[in-house]
Write a structure and sequence with these properties.
Elements (H helix, E strand, L loop, with lengths): L7 E7 L7 H12 L3 E7 L5 H11 L3 E4 L13 E2 L1 H6 L4 E5 L2 E5 L2 H12 L10 E4 L3 H12 L5 E4 L3 H11 L3 E4 L13 E4 L23 E4 L8 H8 L4 E2 L2 H7 L1 H8 L7 H9 L2
Parallel strand pairs: 1-2, 1-3, 4-6, 7-8, 7-10, 8-9, 10-11, 11-12
Antiparallel strand pairs: 3-5, 5-6
Helix pairs in contact: 4-5, 4-8
């Protein structure tokens, strides 16, 4: 596709940023929908982030995604924040509106949409959830589950103090279970989520026995390299529905694409295949 001189421009900022799958993902949608636009990677060092973000309206750029290490630091540079970004404490999507920077966080949305797509009929209110991990991804997932009406969310983290900090902040149905008690925390879960990097290529597997997990509980791993982690392989072997991390990546991109380019994109099997080929 040949771009015109009026092509819209968006991208992703990170440091480094060459690992990002976002250009391939958004590039697929732009070509599929025949949109006169481009989505590119912007390597931005942390100390240059405020200046780079403030340059977006001046350059006519529609907005950007943010990846590590910029999500938390971008908060201060925004003119307005969505409730999700404010609650999670991080920005992953920036939209330029009337020369102003609007910060959003679509990670929780992406997580929920991914689970719903893989487990028809599932809702956060369907039953208790157990989340492993207390990092940035866990914050988005916890907020989405709690705000979606989960009756109870058990949080397990190797640093119990860190998990307790999140419980104090989020409140509601969030309860902390100790790392030593992690297997027992699965006993009545309708959903298990690994929100850590354990199981990722180059990382040790998550040390978790699934014996007490109900056989119909869904198991989600936010890791997508590999697509089937040891946790998902163990869950699939015992018959539990499984959700890999690629779906969250694909679905979290939808709101930004629509805001920048005016089209609500679909997550399809063809898109998954195309992105997987680039992993």
């Amino acid at each position: 596709m040949i771009l015109s001189g009026r092509a819209k421009l968006a991208g992703v900022m990170g440091w480094p940023v060459d690992h990002s799958r976002s250009p391939r993902l958004h590039g697929y949608w732009l070509a599929h929908y025949g949109i006169d636009a481009a989505y590119v990677a912007f390597p931005v060092a942390p100390e240059n982030l405020p200046v780079a973000l403030r340059a977006l309206p001046l350059l006519g750029i529609a907005g950007v995604n943010l990846t590590v290490p910029h999500k938390e630091k971008a908060l201060a540079a925004m003119d307005t924040l969505s409730p999700a970004a404010r609650r999670i404490g991080a920005v992953n999507t920036v939209v330029v509106r009337d020369g102003k920077l609007h910060g959003d966080n679509t990670d929780g949305f992406g997580f929920l949409e991914s689970v719903k797509a893989s487990v028809p009929g599932w809702l956060p209110a369907s039953g208790p959830a157990t989340v492993i991990g207390a990092g940035g991804a866990a914050r988005a997932i916890l907020a989405a589950l709690i705000d979606g009406g989960a009756p109870r969310v058990s949080l397990v983290n190797r640093s119990e103090a860190r998990a307790q900090e999140l419980a104090n902040e989020f409140g509601g149905p969030l309860v902390v279970r100790s790392w030593a008690d992690r297997d027992a925390a699965l006993a009545d879960a309708a959903l298990l989520v690994n929100a850590t990097t354990l199981g990722m290529t180059g990382q040790p597997p998550l040390d978790l026995a699934l014996d007490r997990l109900p056989p119909n509980a869904a198991v989600c791993d936010i890791v997508y390299t590999p697509l089937e982690t040891p946790l998902l392989a163990a869950a699939r072997a015992r018959g539990n529905p499984t959700i890999d991390g690629l779906g969250m990546l694909l679905h979290q991109a939808r709101p930004g694409f629509e805001a920048w380019f005016g089209v609500s994109p679909a997550v399809t099997a063809q898109l998954r295949t195309f992105v997987i080929q680039g992993l």
